[in-house]
Amino acid sequence: MNALCSTILMLAQETAGHGAAAADGHVASPLQPVLFFILELGAILAIVGMMLCLYRMVKGPHLADRVLSGDTLAYQVVGLVILLTVRMESTTYLDGALVVAIIGFASTLAFAQYIGNLKRQTNP
Amino acid sequence: MIWATIGDIFSIFFALAGMFFMFVGAIGVVRLPDAYNRLHATSKCSTLGIMGLALAAVFHVGTLAVTTKAIMTVVFAFVASPVGSHMLAKAAHIDGMKPWDRQLSDELQQDKDRQSGKSPSNAPRGLNAPTQAKGAKPAGPDPTARMSAAV
To answer: pLDDT band at residue B24, thresholds of 50, 70 and 90?
Structure first.
């Protein structure tokens, strides 16, 4: 019984270690620090881009400007999540990227319907 | 080892390209003068930027799950972004958004005016103005009129 338990534990550890090795992937290439530095630069650029989109969202003269900057903001978030995927070498974050893209698209469509019906509702 | 290095080279290249396009799209959203022009910048950001970053993820991680999800994200972005931009531009035009004052022509407005029977209210300025002044007599052979009649 004891031997069985220890074997199961060893198997679990083996599979867990194998999974971690698969998540780590290949042997680390010598270019990996360069890539990670570029990813940090990209995160900074994405955050600056999100700030620019927020500026347009606050300032935008028309309602379409605000919706458009929200759409761009959603795509910047998708890019940031993909950068996180490359950095962590994990699979699970890309689901979040897809979900954010779908929500941004749906909100853009809903706001476009709202803007298109706005004039008809106020003065028919 | 050598394959990991080659994959990282491609990954660095595509990550740089994607970051460049994302940031250029954000700058365009701030700097361009009009909502229609800003939609132009948004589509750059959402197609080329997302595609570059997803290709960087594919070349660096390289497992089957990451590849599948990245392809799904890129295909969705390529389908969704033009649809959203088109609907938003049309809605802004219906709402009567004031265009840029250096806009050359508004052909959707001309088509709407022509279909509702009145003469085109906003005569195009700038480059199109002389040709419009020359062909200003009514019922002239106008390709745009034929197009809208066919529609």
So the answer is: very high
